[in-house]
Amino acid sequence: MANKKNTFLLLNYFKPSIYLESFKKINLDSLKNSGIKLVLCDMDNTLIGWNERIPNLDILNFIKNVYAHNMEFVLFSNNVKSRVENFAKKAGIKNYFWDCKKPLLGKMKIVKKLFKYKENEIILIGDQLVTDVLVANRSHIKSILVSPLSRNNQENKIVQFLENHILKKLSQKNILHEGFYNEGEIGGNYEIL
Q1: DSSP assignment string, 73-110
Q2: For residues 119 and 6, what is the distance between their CA atoms, to the nearest angstrom?
Q3: Distance of alpha carbon 123 from its chain centroid, rounded?
Q4: If DSSP codes are grouped into helix, strand and coil, which group holds residue 148?
Q5: How far is CA 79 from CA 53, 68, 99, in A?
Q6: Is beta strand 142-146 parallel, antiparallel or unpaired with respect to 18-20?
């Protein structure tokens, strides 16, 4: 019995606050109304495909809209400095972090010190449970899980295996079902859990 309870508690570390198909479906009015002031965002497979370099119009508009809602936008990526910096400059992103080593907390602690927002005023957007959602939950901030834009063959096989295993467990416990998003109507409000 204790083992089943521990498994359930462990799975909660991988539960996103909101699950959406894409960053394009994020309702910034709803986030603003929920008190969010800082939007942290993964880059690869969240905003842009792993093999792409140039931010498209959807990405540029999303980032502009975050700023227009008086929220700060921070790129928060595990990728290397050259790729993150190049993308950030092309997308007009002022604040960015590379080599974040998610789900480790090192860079997240730096972000919290630099931006001085309360934990309930920060949200992280990402495409992976084992990096993005886990680091958000370990940091006591909200998270938005989006479906990955693409998968590459070079992607870490261990991460892929863990991701699939955790998704299966979350589905079995009726916590999260892949492809069943909780976005409701486009433009409608959604509850942040």
Answers
A1: EEEE-SS-HHHHHHHHHHHT-SEEE----TTSSHHHHH
A2: 25
A3: 8
A4: coil
A5: 13, 27, 5
A6: parallel
In Å, how far from its chain's centre is CA 45? 10
DSSP-derived secondary structure letter, 131: I
Q: Is the dihedral of CA 67, 141, 145, 84 positive or negative?
A: positive
In tens, the pLDDT along 38-51 reads: 999 999 999 998 88
Neighbour tally for 21: CB within 10 Å = 11
pLDDT digits (tens, 9 = 90+) for 61-109: 999 999 999 999 999 999 999 999 999 999 999 999 999 999 999 999 9
Residue 155, burial from CB neighbour count under 10 angstroms (0-12, 13-18, 19+) = middle
Domains and CATH numbers, the chain: 12-173 (3.40.50.1000)
Q: Which are the contacts of 6, defined by CB distance < 8 A and separation ≥ 6?
A: none
**How many CB atoms lie under 10 A from the CB of residue 114?**
11
C-alpha to C-alpha distance for 9 and 14, rounded to whole angstroms: 10
In one letter, which amino acid is 122?
A: I
Report the Cα–Cα distance between both ends of the chain, in Å, rounded. 27
- What's the pLDDT tens digit per position in 119-160? 999 999 999 999 999 999 999 999 999 999 876 655 577 778
Look up the pTM and report it: 0.89
Lookup: tokens for 13: 């570390």
